[in-house]
Amino acid sequence: MAYRILLAEDNEMEQSALKDIFTSEGYQVDSVSNGLFALDKVKDNEYHLIVTDLVMPVSDGIQFLYSLSSLDREIPVIVLTGYDNIENMLSAYQMGAIDVLYKPYDVDKLLDLCRKILENRI
């Protein structure tokens, strides 16, 4: 079974690179540029994992996590952020994120975390 990942990242280069990396690992990936588009995707599709940036235009990662919690779906979320801000990190965890990785992150660590989540080892 191919796992489906939703990737929400506003930086086009990073979004493209992550999508390529996840795809090369055998995952099916949908990518969007903000939390509003991500929420629309979640409403219309089933995902096994969400990887979202924290700071995005229109609707950021925290707003997305808040909206996601109202959908009554249990989808694990990894948050990526370039801002080492304890308040944002705590908010992400309070909204249900499994982990927060700071940019620049180690791709191998991200992939290992994804594998563990998808294989229900976390």
TrEMBL record:
Residues bearing PTM 4-aspartylphosphate: D53
Please name the Gene3D superfamilies in this protein's record: 3.40.50.2300
Q: Which InterPro entries match?
A: Bact_response_regulator (IPR050595), CheY-like_superfamily (IPR011006), Sig_transdc_resp-reg_receiver (IPR001789)
Q: Where is the signal peptide?
A: none
Per the UniProt entry, what is one GO biological process? phosphorelay signal transduction system
Q: Name one Pfam family in it.
A: Response_reg
- Could you tell me the superkingdom of the organism this chain comes from? Bacteria
The entry's keywords: Phosphoprotein
Ranges for domain Response regulatory come to 4-118
| Protein name, as recorded | Response regulator receiver protein
Protein species of origin: Denitrovibrio acetiphilus (strain DSM 12809 / NBRC 114555 / N2460)
